[in-house]
Amino acid sequence: xxxxxxxxxxxxxxxxxxxxxxxxxxxxxxxxxxxxxxxxxxxxxxxxxxxxxxxxxxxxxxxxxxxxxxxxxxxxxxxxxxxxxxxxxxxxxxxxxxxxxxxxxxxxxxxxxxxxxxxxxxxxxxxxxxxxxxxxxxxxxxxxxxxxxxxxxxxxxxxxxxxxxxxxxxxxxxxxxxxxxxxxxxxxxxxxxxxxxxxxxxxxxxxxxxxxxxxxxxxxxxxxxxxxxxxxxxxxxxxxxxxxxxxxxxxxxxxxxxxxxxxxxxxxxxxxxxxxxxxxxxxxxxxxxxxxxxxxxxxxxxxxxxxxxxxxxxxxxxxxxxxxxxxxxxxxxxxxxxxxxxxxxxxxxxxxxxxxxxxx
Amino acid sequence: xxxxxxxxxxxxxxxxxxxxxxxxxxxxxxxxxxxxxxxxxxxxxxxxxxxxxxxxxxxxxxxxxxxxxxxxxxxxxxxxxxxxxxxxxxxxxxxxxxxxxxxxxxxxxxxxxxxxxxxxxxxxxxxxxxxxxxxxxxxxxxxxxxxxxxxxxxxxxxxxxxxxxxxxxxxxxxxxxxxxxxxxxxxxxxxxxxxxxxxxxxxxxxxxxxxxxxxxxxxxxxxxxxxxxxxxxxxxxxxxxxxxxxxxxxxxxxxxxxxxxxxxxxxxxxxxxxxxxxxxxxxxxxxxxxxxxxxxxxxxxxxxxxxxxxxxxxxxxxxxxxxxxxxxxxxxxxxxxxxxxxxxxxxxxxxxxxxxxxxxxxxxxxxxxxxxxxxxxxxxxxxxxxxxxxxxxxxxxxxxxxxxxxxxxxxxxxxxxxxxxxxxxxxxxxxxxxxxxxxxxxxxxxxxxxxxxxxxxxxxxxxxxxxxxxxxxxxxxxxxxxxxxxxxxxxxxxxxxxxxxxxxxxxxxxxxxxxxxxxxxxxxxxxxxxxxxxxxxxxxxxxxxxxxxxxxxxxxx
Amino acid sequence: xxxxxxxxxxxxxxxxxxxxxxxxxxxxxxxxxxxxxxxxxxxxxxxxxxxxxxxxxxxxxxxxxxxxxxxxxxxxxxxxxxxxxxxxxxxxxxxxxxxxxxxxxxxxxxxxxxxxxxxxxxxxxxxxxxxxxxxxxxxxxxxxxxxxxxxxxxxxxxxxxxxxxxxxxxxxxxxxxxxxxxxxxxxxxxxxxxxxxx
Lengths: 360, 557, 198
Known about the structure:
The complex is a heterotrimer.
Chain A: E1 5-6, H1 23-39, H2 56-89, E2 103-104, H3 108-136, E3 146-153, E4 156-161, E5 166-169, E6 171-175, E7 185-191, E8 196-198, E9 207-209, E10 215-219, E11 225-230, E12 243-249, H4 251-262, H5 272-280, H6 283-286, E13 310-311, E14 316-317, H7 320-328, H8 346-356
Parallel strand pairs in A: 3-7, 6-12
Antiparallel strand pairs in A: 1-2, 3-4, 4-5, 7-10, 8-9, 11-12, 13-14
Helix pairs in contact in A: 2-3, 5-8, 7-8
Chain B: H1 18-26, H2 31-59, H3 70-104, H4 113-132, H5 167-195, H6 208-239, H7 253-287, H8 294-308, H9 323-335, H10 337-351, H11 360-383, H12 385-391, H13 395-425, H14 431-451, H15 453-457, H16 474-504, H17 542-547
Chain C: E1 4-8, E2 11-15, H1 20-46, H2 56-59, H3 64-86, H4 89-120, H5 129-160, H6 169-196
Antiparallel strand pairs in C: 1-2
Helix pairs in contact in C: 1-5, 1-6, 3-4, 3-6, 4-5, 5-6
């Protein structure tokens, strides 16, 4: 059956208005934003731009995203043009004769065409997608991979390097990977409480940390530098301040950092008073300082606190003032944080801060 | 007791004492009155949830803002999402379905009028229960009140350990109660459409509005039930010491996600299919042509209904499913684009070769076509799972689904208001105010939701009460917030238009749009009994046949 | 009744849409089936995953007798419905009582089984994953049996008052659809819990 239609002459009430001008502004608005985002890809003004990949998984996702954007962009242009054409060409004219237009009920050929073509597009998109899924969801790490276990907490990140004997928090250090001889990092993702998600856009897509459901991901950062991200699965009140900092270093710098992290805490008699306060207040119930009696696991490991640029999972710069403020009352920096204010007086705060400042 | 239509001021009913009139409305089982109750209820909650959105956006206008505390912010986005989905969009769609289906199929009322009333009041009570939480439950930390676990309430955040107090329980109970109301309405719609059609109206001659609401009702039956089940399980965990989602006892947090999204994905089709129904009625009338490809539209909608039950885990691409599972959900997600695209093309073909009149209902439906196209395409982008490993849980997703719900659903809903308000009230809406509403709202919509995609592409996750400067998100968030004020202005103009037109609008007559379905053959507003005698129809456009007796539709269908 | 026969434009039009009570009951059954499916999926997912506590083999005993009671009640309710359609109110009433009795016997069996599990075995809903899923699934089913029995009892009262006549056969059919659904769910639950899961 072909198109079914007929013509009819009936008087119409004639009153109509034309509007199609502002579509141009809509087009600009839609595309302008996308273009600006693209412009960022070579010189990222945003440190978390997904179109500025620096690691193989991120790069292969980037390639897929370009393909998908091209296909969907083409579909958009075609259909948009047809829609725009139809509302301009087929609008009711001022000098309309009042007859109904030809009544068309359908057309099987046309329906076939716009069924088959989308199916083919879907097949193409799926095949491109499946290829990247296979590439990124590798399960077996090569022998020279660095193994890290990331454990999500409310609201901080714990990192363990099981083969290297290092435990730290919030700032992840990794060796840079040479594309010719890759040294990727394989991360096992666990959680002690609620769901979290590890997302450092320039290094890879996000993977969730779910209690009782270990996940794995891998990255091979190919440029040194600091990469930013943050928790991407709502985990409670301070989800917004569970920030990620990944420090990608040269092999030598990374080895040095590992060696430093493996040291027990520096001992310094001048700050004995601060250390005493630390060990007799409830601090040791939650925090570990290796080589001392403090071996709590609920809060971040503080053995090398001073090796980090930030405290409170990126919520504040690691300065003595901020550290003192944090200990005095964590709610001033991260309201709803699970660390309680320890009700210390000013003298005790000074001594305690001085002690923590020695944990390099 | 009154079975009359909605009164115009000055008629004898207006002289009844207020209490008597209130009693009529509270005890009504008339589908038209219940429809108006649903719609009014949803407009009230639209305002409340809209204010919640404004507060969220003001907080996010710049980094490290302290307009609201993190506790309040987390409650705001939870309540905004929950309210909009369960107490704005679903009730308003049920309201239009209740009002229009019997009129369109030539019936006296819905199949089960008392069940209809029961379902409405369950929904209303659920909404009140959700907001009663503000009167003093304990949140995650400290005193107050509204739930703050997000509208999808992932485990184990909702366990007693992490959600102390009763705020989460208000979320659970409010949705359980209104869920029973939703299932009741769905049963009613199915029974009405299958059993109450007037003679001659076979399923193939039924308006698309009735078909699409039938599919929507089927989805409610199959989708709301899993949510009910999951919420019962959550209550068992919270109060009977159960371990359904207790990861410490070996339970799975992921299984909550599966159960929730088995509900959650068909739910978005429950929201959008009635929007398709509006477009399928309005676009033909203002193009002066029948809908192009009626049977294909029906088949595509049924296909969408079926496929929508199989795509749910595309909300879980980042959870760590196997590559086989990820691939399956990629295919199913992309597959649903095919029937959805077919519908867009059919609407386009309906306009093609027609004589388009740019009245307010049609303006909104044309904007819907452009915007739903974009929304569908950003959906395809996220269907490519690795791309979704970036886009998921970021502001790109928030932009996408608001593009569908506001740019798609709300726009057709506005169109439906302007189109059927004359039928429901007997008065025409002001075209001038309608167009002002349209332009204010569309400018605001695009300012907010076009630019909202960009922070997502630049790494901004969702559900954060503040964000760091220096990530390139600041300017975009600012623009997004500005757009909200235009939308608010548009909504105020809209409400003003409804109120003004109710009292001062031009008399509408029974068929102000020269349309073709049965509701336009009754008075405006229709009498309580709808039709003086039972209609008998021979084609899909009974009024076309009536108006063109020499050339009726049934020769061509 | 919606069925109509009329003359339209000189032609005979037979119009027989389905009965709305039946359509509504099937829709309700579909919704309930979806709820039960989720509980069954949870049960199957958690088989063997409990970290502690008794396994099904340790504590469950297969309730053969009470299953026979419940499934027989489907037969009696079917016979009752056909009796009513035929017009024999007396046999309808007797078969209806039999249905209620058999359903109540099933509930009694569940009650003593649960008493044994809770008080003798110390096995509760909070014991382990098996406990949570077992009591939830069977409890949900038992709740639906209770609702069914309440409905059947209301009909019983109407019967004793003499209000139930053969023209109500359609409504009795619709109600018995619900009862058959409850039995089918039991077949599924029995298979999953006592055959597959043990």
